[in-house]
Amino acid sequence: MTRIRVSPPAVLATLADLIAIPSVNPMLTPGAAGEAESAAYCARFLREAGLEVHRQEAAPGRPNVVGILRGTGGGRSLMLNGHLDTVGVEGMAAPFSPVQAGGRMLGRGSSDMKASIAAMLWTARAIQEAGVRLAGDLLIACVCDEEYASIGSEALVREFTADAAIVTEPTDLNLCLAHRGFVWVEVETFGRAAHGSRPNEGIDAIVHMGRVLTALEVYAHDLAGRPHPALVTPPSVHASTIQGGREWSMYPDHCRVQIERRTVTGETTESVVAEFQALLADVRAQDSTFQATVRPVFSREPFETDPTAPIAQTVAQAITAVRGAPGPLVGMTAWTDAALLQAAGIPTVLFGNTGGGWHSLDEYVEVDSVSQCADVLIETALAWCG
């Protein structure tokens, strides 16, 4: 097999360029720049590398960029997917001024996930510059909005597909095959408003919500003991926000709590809502004045790929070729766009850089991992696409 490797200084220069372009998700920080400038940079890079470039508007001013390195025919296609958006930068002194020190590069998006975007871009360019013609198509998909609602990858799979995909979220250069999903629900309790001096007339909706929260703690302990896929942690639940009451001297007639329920393979929105309905029914059985409702607000499916899947085997072999050993199979704690690609019928795995401080004030990527990530992606493309 032809051995192609990227130039570490070159890929790090591209990473520095990407960090210097603000791409904070405007749904998280109103008025933020969004992904347009980063998308334009990636489009130029891919076009100059000789790829066919498509711009896809997931929403006004929220583009995806898809570069396609066309194969000669007869080979399998591979999609590399990464998101351009970042979370906010409040409290960061210089979020868009990349600093390299101690084997790390710091800056917003350095690890999550502009390092892997740089690796994706250089995967295509290095293959082109080596004069290698793949049999199958190689797609480089730089998408918007993963940090909020993933409208980018949702739009992507409506127009583009592949025989397999790698989502290049940071995995510490390990092959990641699973993560949990989530369901957001709102529970509301209802009381009866009355003056605070008239306890016989009022029903306290906040006290009723307290009973729900007590039951929620029991529910969380039950979830922690349930069976779950080996690569992920058990299903879980936590209360996220709570609002209720009107004023000091008044019995509250309403209280609302927003709850996140993390799910594992086999669980659905419907099954989660049914469990909450059962929880509320148990509370209601102890107090005839208790009134409450539950409704699902948003959900995402869990993700899991069989380690014997061809794309998983190919990536494991590529890791061995670059790093000398396949490393452990891992799961991820956070949700990713891999679940959307898998649900669209594209066999998918996760593989990306080593870093830390995601969503915090000191986000960083290990610089050596950026070129290694690219080298593994190159090995995978050569083997998979033929």
Q: How would you describe this protein?
A:
By secondary structure, the protein is an alpha+beta fold. The protein folds into two domains: about 10-180 and about 305-385, Zn peptidases (Aminopeptidase), CATH 3.40.630; about 180-300, Alpha-Beta Plaits, CATH 3.30.70. The chain contains nine helices and 19 strands. The protein has helices at about 10-20, 35-50, 110-130, 150-160, 205-225, 270-285, 310-325, 340-345, 365-385, and strands at about 50-60, 60-70, 80-85, 100, 105, 140-145, 165, 175-180, 180-190, 195, 235-245, 250, 255-265, 290-300, 305, 330, 350, 355, 365. It has a six-stranded mixed beta sheet with strand order 1-2-6-3-7-17. A four-stranded antiparallel beta sheet has the order 4-5-19-18. Helix 7 (about 310-325) crosses helix 9 (about 365-385). The longest helix is centred in the first third of the chain and has 20 residues, at about 110-130. The N and C termini lie close together (about 10 Å). The model has no long low-confidence stretch (mean pLDDT about 95).
Widest sheet: strand ordering: 1-2-6-3-7-17
> Which fold does the CATH topology of the largest domain refer to?
Aminopeptidase
**Total domain modules:** 2
Tell me the number of strands: 19
Strand % is 25-35%
CATH H level, superfamily name of the largest domain: Zn peptidases
- As a whole number of angstroms, the C-alpha radius of gyration is 24 Å
Question: In CATH's first tier, which class of the largest domain applies?
Answer: Alpha Beta
> Tell me about the biggest sheet?
6 strands, mixed
